[in-house]
Amino acid sequence: MRTRLAIRIDAMLEHWFPERRVFLRSETDTRFIRLKPGTQLIAFTGASLFVGWTIIATAVLLMDSIGAGNFREQARRDQRTYENRLNALASERDSRAAEAIAAQDRFNAALDQISKMQSELLASETRRRELETGIEVIQTTLRRTIREREAAKDRAEGLMAASEGNGDVVLAASGGALGALDVMIEALEQTARERDQVTADAQAALTQADDMALQIKAMQEKNDTIFRQLEDAMTISVKPLDKMFRAAGMDTDRVLSQVRRGYGGQGGPLTPITFSTKGLAPSLDETRANRLLGQMDQLNLYRIAAQKAPFAIPVKAGFRFTSGFGYRRDPKTGGRRMHAGVDFAGPVGTPLYATADGVVVHAGWSSGYGRLVKIQHEFGIETRYAHLSRLSVNVGQRVSRGQRIGDMGASGRVTGPHLHYEVRVGGNPVNPMIYIKAANDVF
Question: CATH: 3.40.50.1000, 3.40.50.300, 2.70.70.10, 3.20.20.70. Which one for 311-438?
Answer without folding.
Answer: 2.70.70.10
